[in-house]
Amino acid sequence: MLETIRKRLTLLFSGTFLLLLILILLGVYFTTARLLDQTELNQLKSVSDRELFERIEHGEDRLIRDPIFFQILDSDGAERYARLPDDLSKKTIDRFVSSDTETQKLELEDRHFLLYQRNTDENGLIVLMKDISATEDTLQRLIAMLFGITVLSTLVLMGISYVLAGRSVLPVQQAFDRQRRFTSDASHELRTPLTILYSGIELLETEPLSTEGKTILSDLKAETASMQYLVSDLLLLAREGHPGPMSSLDLSTLVTQTTDRFRHTVVGRTLHLDVAPGLLVKGDSNQLIRLLTIFLENAVAYSDADIEVTLQQTPSDVRLMIADQGIGIPPENQDKVFERFFRGDHARHGSGTGLGLAIARSIAEAHGATILLESTLHQGTRFTILFPTP
């Protein structure tokens, strides 16, 4: 459980750091792109402000250096001078001239251009066009570099976050270990006197007693048995469902035999069994029997109708389903039923410790399984346990 918390904290820490890093890198990229674009535009504006175009007719167009191209239009829109790329269509430049935009980016095959236009003093128009392929290539390289930084930083941040998360849960782990040792020790210490008490009650039952005495003795025996059951549950919880030796076992046979034994304790209803043969899982047979028994006991306690037990194979897992047609679980309680000592409406079953489903979840987690709950009030409940395939 604490390892799960550590992983979640790792994701939280690394996700937060990574988000901040991405925001910073995005800021770097867009700021750099804006500066480069502004530098290119300033160069075009500088060229257009030199009033060199009046001297073009005197052969001084060499002052407009490549890769800057230009077009000069008079007040009637007629072209006076032009030096444009050979692969640039007239329609493309005409669309830009007729638009209201001052600048525009254009891509011709594998080259990129920046277009800029302004009015002249004679109500004409100057159009400048600069090859900015080198700038775009720089931005592409910047993207690749920032992506590499992001990937590398993600790995480093996850490692750092895992260490920090480990230090964060260390006090919790220590407190949890102390609580588990206390519960385990207390459970062990209680088992012996409870066993002696139960044996003494059984011995007293052989003695001649009044009717009232027999009733009191019967109540004491029942309460002692309940205490023994509670102590066993606490001991199992203290071990966090830690299984014994794990081995490959036939879950189909285990479910069939456990359900058949449980069938004899059910009166007035039917246990429907649908088990696919030969389904194997890796686990502890004793704990898996305890897991199934918990769900069967709950189904019997909360339902007077038939119970269905189904075991089937899917492409991703082995699914064990226990369904009843009982009172159901209210939606507000469905997230709480796996908590220790939580008991909802238990008027139907009278006694209970509220530990059964907590134990079931602990056993399932120890086997790498997941428990799903589907319940509708006054219609029934279905528990589905998803076992990983071995």
Structure description:
- The chain is of the alpha+beta class.
- The chain folds into two domains: 2-139, Beta-Lactamase; 247-388, 2-Layer Sandwich (Heat Shock Protein 90), CATH 3.30.565.
- Helix content is 51%, strand content 20%.
- The protein is built from seven helices and twelve strands.
- A five-stranded antiparallel beta sheet has the order 2-1-5-4-3, with helices on one face.
- Helix 3 packs antiparallel against helix 4 (211-238) and helix 6 (285-302) packs antiparallel against helix 7.
- The relative contact order is 0.08.
- It holds the Pfam family HisKA.
- The chain crosses the membrane at residues 9-30, 142-165.
- InterPro entries: HATPase_C_sf, HATPase_dom, His_kinase_dom, HisK_dim/P_dom, HisK_dim/P_sf, Sig_transdc_His_kin-like_C, TCS_sensor_his_kinase.
- It comes from Exiguobacterium antarcticum.
pLDDT averaged over residues: 81
Which architecture of the largest domain would the CATH scheme give at its second level?
Answer: 2-Layer Sandwich
- Tell me the β content: 15-25%
The CATH superfamily of the largest domain is identified as Histidine kinase-like ATPase, C-terminal domain
Number of domains: 2
* CATH topology annotation of the largest domain: Heat Shock Protein 90
Task: State Rg.
Answer: 39 Å
Number of helices: 7
DSSP strand tally: 12
Give the ordered list of helices and strands: HEEHEEEHHEHEEHEEHEE
Which helices and strands, and how do they pair?
Layout: H1 2-48, E1 68-73, E2 79-83, H2 90-98, E3 103-108, E4 111-119, E5 125-131, H3 133-204, H4 211-238, E6 247-250, H5 251-263, E7 271-275, E8 280-283, H6 285-302, E9 307-313, E10 317-324, H7 356-366, E11 370-376, E12 380-388
Parallel strand pairs: 7-9
Antiparallel strand pairs: 1-2, 1-5, 3-4, 4-5, 6-8, 9-10, 10-12, 11-12
